[in-house]
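Collaborator request, handled under Task 6.
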Amino acid sequence: MAWDSKYPAFGVIKIQGDRVHLYSSRDNYTTVSVGKLVTNALWAGSFLNVSMSDGKVRRYSSRDSYSTI
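Structure tokens returned to the collaborator:
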């Protein structure tokens, strides 16, 4: 299932170690557990690109589906 459009539309991302919090409003968010230390996370349209400390980048199309680019 693809991301709900409210997440990229609100656009706020908070990184906490190996987790990424994606906000849909000031008080509501969902969490993506990456399993590796996250260095950066950005929206690219409806995809979430997550850079990790090992230099790899994951492209998430939903909370549970990603490809490594």
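The cover message to the collaborator said: "Strands lie at 13-16, 19-23, 29-33, 38-44, 47-52, 57-60, 66-68. The radius of gyration is 11 Å. Please let us know whether this matches your experimental observations."
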